[in-house]
Design a protein that fits this description.
The protein is α/β, with parallel strands linked by helices. The protein has two domains: 199 residues, 2-enoyl-CoA Hydratase, Chain A, domain 1; 47 residues, Lyase 2-enoyl-coa Hydratase, Chain  A, domain 2, CATH 1.10.12. Helices cover 40% and strands 18% of the residues. It is built from ten helices and twelve strands. The strands form three sheets. A seven-stranded mixed beta sheet has the order 1-2-3-4-7-9-12, sandwiched between helices. A three-stranded mixed beta sheet has the order 8-10-11. A two-stranded antiparallel ribbon has the order 5-6. It is globular, with a radius of gyration of 19 Å. The protein starts with a strand and ends in a 10-residue tail after the last helix. The N terminus is likely disordered.
Length: 260
């Protein structure tokens, strides 16, 4: 079953077979994020995590641009799109349990790039561009750019992006492994939704646990990491979904997940 929901004029949501597509809908402003947009993005992400019928989210921007980052006109008036405890766009510092895929067309700039970096996967069109220009304004990319980019790219490549403020093409980003999948121009959203469907057929509890373990073992040594992982892995053994996965395999049919 397919249903479509329009949350507001700033953020749109669409549900399809366990996937929630979240669209920043300010094409006239290149999907720059003001405070109200951040609040609505946070609500959409909360909807993804709270709804047991949703397994995966896709984040994109309307009108051929992912996001130009902060709405500087709104910022000049005293607004900030950084929400307490959640970060830029209500996303960059938020803990999102379910997988989230960025579908990038056009520019992912500044906070827009940082929102993409906060996602678990990035699908980008061949002509997309990524940039962190904060040093050109006397600032640093403080909503995940200086932290996450060196974790996703080779150190010297990441520092070149951060220190020059110059954009990186999707082709270069793909070459260095930043992008999960690259599509033809105009195809990022369809590509991300197709990838999301491939993920959504899997057990939702297991998907959430994968994210949790990957996040929590960063920086730990092997002994500590396995101890942390084992706690979460063992918690799945007695779930209905784990039983269903085994039975479905034996019966040579697709599993029916319950999320419990």
């Amino acid at each position: 079953m397919t249903t479509t929901e329009v949350s507001t004029e700033l953020v749109l949501t669409e549900r399809h077979d366990g996937v929630l597509t979240i669209t920043i809908n300010r094409p006239g402003q290149k999907n720059a994020v003001n405070r109200e947009t951040a609040i609505q993005l946070a609500a959409a992400v909360d909807q993804l995590d709270a709804d047991p019928e949703l397994s995966v989210g896709v984040l994109t921007g309307a009108g051929g641009t992912f996001s130009a980052g902060m709405d500087l006109k709104a910022f000049a008036k005293g607004e900030t799109p950084i929400l307490p405890g959640r970060g830029f766009g209500g996303l960059t510092q938020a803990v999102v349990r379910k997988p989230l895929i960025a579908a990038v067309e056009g520019w992912a700039l500044g906070g827009g790039f940082e929102m993409a970096l906060s996602c678990d996967l990035i699908v980008a069109a061949q002509d997309a561009k990524f940039g962190l220009t904060e040093v050109k304004r006397g600032l640093i990319a403080g909503e995940g750019g200086v932290i996450r980019l060196p974790q996703r790219l080779p150190y010297h490549v990441a520092l070149k992006v951060l220190l020059t403020g110059e954009p990186m093409s999707a082709i270069d980003a793909n070459r260095y492994g930043l992008i999960s999948e690259m599509t033809a121009p105009g195809g990022a959203l369809a590509g991300a939704q197709e990838l999301a469907q491939r993920i959504a057929v899997n057990a939702p509890l297991a998907l959430a646990k994968v994210k949790q373990v990957v996040r929590e073992v960063q920086g730990l040594n092997d002994t500590e990491a396995f101890a942390r992982q084992n706690t979460e892995a063992h918690s799945l053994l007695d779930t209905e979904d784990a039983h269903e996965g085994a039975v479905a395999f034996a019966e040579k049919r697709a599993p029916v997940w319950r999320g419990r």
